[in-house]
Amino acid sequence: MVIATELCALSEYRIYPGNGKLFIRRDGRPMFFGTSKAYSLTMQRKKPAKLVWTQAWRRLNKKGLTETLTKKRTRRTNKVARAVVGISLEDIRKRAAQKPEFRTAQREAALKEVKSRKAASKGKGGKGQAGQTYSSKVPKTVKRAQKGGSQR
């Protein structure tokens, strides 16, 4: 046999037939109250979430969820090695296997080569940088003197 029960508007407890009060609001919405305490607190405009014994407070403060909700299992992400545009996967693995001393020596040799190339290009003449002069930076807020006109 199924018994038609209502839920209390404040506490959200079940209200069985023959118990509680039915209050019709001005907008026509019915509100069921299980006890005079619930009715009184609603008339005082108390918030159910601030009353410790209500279901709203228990939901807000995560009480009584242990038996219904189990902890979600997190999946570990697996690291996958992929080839980069300029280099294949095998080359990446070879470089990772190399000793750090060998790699630093390679890096230094490459730097020396770049420096020697720059020095060679400067010796030939390169770009004409000798005749250029640079003005110091002036903040945007400071007004500069105009070249061809009177200042006001």
UniProtKB/TrEMBL annotation:
Residues 5-67 form the Large ribosomal subunit protein eL24-related N-terminal domain. Residues 96-152 are annotated as: Disordered. Residues 96-116 have a biased composition (Basic and acidic residues). GO terms for biological process: cytoplasmic translation. GO terms for molecular function: mRNA binding; structural constituent of ribosome. The keyword Membrane does not apply. Coiled coil: none annotated. Keywords: Ribonucleoprotein, Ribosomal protein. It comes from the Eukaryota. GO terms for cellular component: cytosolic large ribosomal subunit. Belongs to the eukaryotic ribosomal protein eL24 family. This is Large ribosomal subunit protein eL24-related N-terminal domain-containing protein. It comes from Pseudictyota dubia. The lineage of its organism: Eukaryota, Sar, Stramenopiles, Ochrophyta, Bacillariophyta.
